[in-house]
Amino acid sequence: MPHLNMVQAINQALAQEMERDDRVVLLGEDIGKDGGVFRVTEGLWERFGAERVIDTPLSESGIVGTAIGMAAYGLRPVPEIQFLGFAYAALDQIFTHAARIRNRSRGRYSCPMVIRTPYGGGIKAPELHEESSEALFCHMPGIKVVVPSGPYHAKGLLLQALRDPDPVLFLEPTRLYRMIREEVPEGEYTIPLGKARVVREGKQVTVVSWGSMLERVLKAVGPEAEVIDLMTLSPFDAETVLASVRKTGRAVVVQEAPKTGGFGAEIVATIAEEAILYLRGPVLRVAAPDVTMPLPKLIDAYLPTMDHISNAVQEVLRY
Amino acid sequence: MESKLRELLSDAELLGFYEQMVLSREFEESCAEQYTKGHITGFLHLYSGQEAVAVGTTAGLQKEDYILSAYRDHAQAIVRGADPNRVMAELFGKATGICKGKGGSMHLFDPKLNFMGGYAIVAGQFPIAVGLAFAAKLKQEERIVTCFFGDGSMNQGNFHEALNWSRVWDLPVLYICENNFYGIGTVVQRASALPALHRRTCGYDIPSEKVDGMDVIAVYEAVKRAAAWIRERQRPYFIEAVTYRFRGHSMADPATYRSSAEQEIWRSRDPIPNFAKRLIDEGITDQAALDEIDARCTARVEEAVRFAEESPWPEDSAVWEDIYV
Ligand SMILES: Cc1ncc(C[n+]2csc(CCOP(=O)(O)OP(=O)(O)O)c2C)c(N)n1
Ligand SMILES: [Mg+2]
């Protein structure tokens, strides 16, 4: 089986789905002729032509808004936003229309599209190029939020997202783009949305994470920990998390985003609502401080480290 | 022989233009080297080739005027008067940086110079410029707000909203479009319905003109005229400076989308040697004097690198600073 990095795995998924379904069109800034700023769409313009791999003017709101129109007409657009921080310029279209077309038309129109964007920190760029604001999108009903943690899952989740009847925000952890290589089957396969996976079984503490933090969690924790990769944040798989917490009686949630109002808070709240009687101690969050992402030199003081993670695990194991 | 340049400016001013362009170029080329060495990380957008726009524009303004820019902002800050040491330290992420080493290349600010920021979000600066101009007008302080931006940014909604508002409210905004023909790899003809960018303002009834952005004197003259016009009428004005960036979009960009023939044509229009030639042809200076300026700029940038290297890193606790009071 070929060893691919995440960029290659996503590229392959896009190509295969475009081959299979001619309704799939890609659009975004510099994705065509130039192959995309991270080269994720490399070769697709040559292969599928400028009408299906569309270079757009520089306008995020335009990209997403246009994609909504295309989707309502019956295409399956895949808008790319160059960095998650630039999606703020498109929030209006994402929140006020993409997420609501189905409900607003009482099910008569839908908006099947996948907004792809790199996200997250640790690539030595400041601020808006390292945002981890997934929770904003999870708060908005009507849009699914999917985060792969490696090449294999990126391909399977993306293929499933591309076939989903509703809008999906597909967040690609930038730090992992070329960091991890793993076996990725050449053929098609899908991984269901809305399902978490138990990456490693353990008996004493449940550690929940997603995206680029998963790689750190796996290095930071020992065999006592049951590690869960959420994969889909919205709607998230509460059952898998709760089943694990009921077994271990302890939980730590690790997110790379600032703490307040982060998606970790939702998981902790769900555990409090549904499994509090199984808990032996407090549920801890490992998160970034509530500040703007700084320049690289301060990144270690900002992003959760392996030490932060293992300290939190040791802390809950005291109970 | 009657000197055309001497009719416009003093020798000291002309040599000052030359020196600022060379300093900008040296600074940027040194940044490239520091990036390659790993001292500067992240996204680094260099200004080489476009110096005449920053220098000519800044010279045509007053100190009280505000300036905003995008992320290709080092030269604009330095030409405005920012200390090259502190700009370089900022790019290194050092505590002595102009923004304490937390903002980096794309977010330079210096309130003492009325330099209201680089903006990494393309077109983010437009409405902010309008707001500054509105405030200046309300407080009856005579100020022009100058907003630098690229050809690509004109396709964002922010651009159109800002143009409209600044005309509806008649605000003293000077729009300086740096048309270098590309937004990353997308050439202007593929992104703009009207590639003659200065003509796009007619929908907002904002007068505009196109100027040779490789000619520092042409830019200076246009900006000086425009600034006087704005001060008199308190209305927005738009200048499209046609220019070219000699390097890729950022250090990460191999710029394969531009033919070498195209690049050669623009290299031959390099604003620095062409201005040098003109200075010599018109008898304002000689090569030896220009060499001396070049050497001074090289030394100045070397000092900036040394300063950045020797400066301390920010403390970890700085992560918590400057969020709320
Ligand atoms: C909102 C937003 N979208 C996309 C980007 C990524 N990006 C950075 S610069 C750029 C091209 C801008 O081109 P132009 O305005 O012509 O300026 P130039 O780089 O030529 O100076 C793009 C797409 C961004 N920084 N912000
Ligand atoms: Mg440009």
TrEMBL record, chain A:
Kindly list the cofactors needed.
thiamine diphosphate
Please state every residue range assigned to the domain named Transketolase-like pyrimidine-binding.
Answer: 4-179
> A GO molecular function for this record?
oxidoreductase activity
Source organism per entry reads Geomesophilobacter sediminis
- Name assigned to this protein: Alpha-ketoacid dehydrogenase subunit beta
The cross-references to Pfam families, in alphabetical order and at most eight, read: Transket_pyr (PF02779), Transketolase_C (PF02780)
**Alphabetized InterPro entries for the sequence:** THDP-binding, Transketo_C/PFOR_II, Transketolase-like_Pyr-bd, Transketolase_C
Record keywords, A-Z? Oxidoreductase, Thiamine pyrophosphate
State the Gene3D superfamilies in the record. Answer: 3.40.50.920, 3.40.50.970
Automatic annotation (TrEMBL), chain B:
User: Catalytic activity annotated for this protein?
Assistant: N(6)-[(R)-lipoyl]-L-lysyl-[protein] + pyruvate + H(+) = N(6)-[(R)-S(8)-acetyldihydrolipoyl]-L-lysyl-[protein] + CO2
Q: Indicate yes or no for the key word Oxidoreductase.
A: yes
User: Which terms does the UniProt entry file under GO BP?
Assistant: pyruvate decarboxylation to acetyl-CoA
User: Which domain of life does the UniProt lineage start with?
Assistant: Bacteria
**Is the Oxidoreductase keyword given for this protein?**
yes
Alphabetically, the GO molecular function entries are: pyruvate dehydrogenase (acetyl-transferring) activity
Q: Which Pfam families match?
A: E1_dh
Q: Which cofactors are named for this entry?
A: thiamine diphosphate
**Broad class of enzyme this protein falls into:** oxidoreductase
Entry's EC annotation: 1.2.4.1
Q: What does this protein do?
A: The pyruvate dehydrogenase complex catalyzes the overall conversion of pyruvate to acetyl-CoA and CO(2).
- Subunit relationships: Heterodimer of an alpha and a beta chain.
Q: What is this protein called?
A: Pyruvate dehydrogenase E1 component subunit alpha
Can you name the source organism?
A: Geomesophilobacter sediminis
